[in-house]
Amino acid sequence: MLGYKVYYDKDQLKFVYNETVSEVYAVGYDSPTMWFYTLSNAKNFCDSNNDHTGDYSVKICKDCGAAFLYSIYDDKWLHERGLKPYSRCYKCRKIRKKEKKDEER
Predict the structure, then answer these.
(1) What is the number of other CB atoms lying within 10 angstroms of the CB of residue 70?
(2) pTM, to two decimals
(3) What is the mean pLDDT of the chain?
(4) Partner of 91 at 20 to 30 A CA spacing, among 18, 28, 85, 100?
(5) What's the rounded Cα separation, in Å, for the pair 55 and 90?
(6) Could you give the number of structural domains in the chain?
């Protein structure tokens, strides 16, 4: 399948998109890389999220330093349950959860 790649550029601190179509490949759950079927959709996503009016922002994991997506939906879900916003990426959250579970044994 082909699509237009959108990713978060840590140097520019914003989402950017490729104007050439490329092969789509799987990425992690909270990866700041995604694909869109049309160039206009990729551009619209970048425009709305770079001016902070979109549904997504990017955070930097405090453990591994990787960029990860954080949505307003994540924020709402955590707030409803009285939890703090994520400060770690999905991978590091899973590792930390496993370490805590192992310590309890």
Answers:
(1) 20
(2) 0.69
(3) 88
(4) 18
(5) 18
(6) 1
